[in-house]
């Protein structure tokens, strides 16, 4: 009996060693297998991703800093291409990889104006487009680039101050709209505290469901319309 058991175990071990994958292959597979990110990590990245308005504001601020840095580099006596490359490296842009064609064009002596226009984002790229116009005027007419860049910087700075002023004035209406959107939930809590059973009416009858759906739709539309008007005014 003992010999039969030992023989069976030996046979099973031999079969397992013969058919099982090699340890080195298993470790290599684990190392080369791409692990998927957890869903919570992907959701956190989506929530922390800047909104288009914040991204545009970051581009505008970086454009103002770029104009100031470029003006300083030009005043120091550097060539336009070298000054632009150094100014871009000194400014923290939201998407630095988008400016690589500009740096390459500035170092190679190719069309910098076209590179600025192609790299400028649709929202927040006004500074780069105005800088491209200044560069084109400086190349074709021979005007002083430092003076043109300084004018663009002052214009962008004034526009940024105006947008900040408008945003500060619109903070009150935005807050009021959010408070008004929360008031229906507060009314439900007060009705529940008075034993009026609002949830039974809203979820337990057809008129209640109609009122609930209509109220939520009007609340969402009000918030959307308020934010839309504020964005257009801040524009």
UniProtKB/TrEMBL annotation:
Annotated localization: Cell membrane
Bilayer topology reads: Multi-pass membrane protein
Q: Which residues cross the membrane?
A: 201-225
Entry's InterPro entries? T2SS_GspF_dom
Answer yes or no on keyword Cell division. no
Give the UniProt keywords, A-Z.
Cell membrane, Membrane, Signal, Transmembrane, Transmembrane helix
Q: What PANTHER family would the database entry show? A: CONSERVED TRANSMEMBRANE PROTEIN-RELATED (PTHR35007:SF4), INTEGRAL MEMBRANE PROTEIN-RELATED (PTHR35007)
Q: What is this protein called?
A: Type II secretion system F family protein
Q: Which organism is it from?
A: Nonomuraea cypriaca
């Amino acid at each position: 009996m003992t010999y039969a058991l030992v023989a069976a175990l030996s046979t099973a071990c031999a079969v397992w060693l013969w058919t099982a994958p090699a340890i080195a292959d298993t470790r290599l597979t684990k190392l080369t297998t791409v692990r998927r990110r957890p869903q919570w990590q992907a959701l956190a990245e989506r929530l922390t991703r800047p909104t288009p308005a914040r991204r545009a504001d970051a581009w505008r601020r970086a454009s103002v800093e770029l104009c100031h840095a470029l003006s300083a580099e030009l005043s120091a006596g550097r060539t336009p291409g070298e000054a632009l490359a150094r100014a871009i490296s000194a400014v923290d842009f939201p998407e630095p990889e988008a400016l690589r064609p500009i740096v390459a064009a500035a170092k190679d002596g190719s069309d910098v104006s076209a590179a600025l226009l192609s790299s400028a984002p649709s929202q927040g790229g006004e500074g780069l487009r105005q800088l491209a116009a200044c560069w084109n005027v400086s190349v074709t007419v021979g005007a002083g680039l430092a003076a043109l860049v300084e004018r663009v910087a002052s214009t962008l700075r004034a526009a940024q101050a105006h947008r900040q002023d408008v945003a500060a004035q619109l903070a009150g209406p935005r807050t009021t709209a959010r408070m008004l959107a929360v008031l229906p939930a507060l009314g439900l809590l007060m009705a529940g505290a008075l034993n009026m059973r609002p949830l039974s009416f809203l979820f337990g009858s057809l008129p209640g469901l109609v009122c609930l759906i209509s109220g939520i739709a009007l609340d969402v539309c009000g918030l959307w319309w308020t934010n839309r008007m504020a964005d257009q005014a801040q524009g």
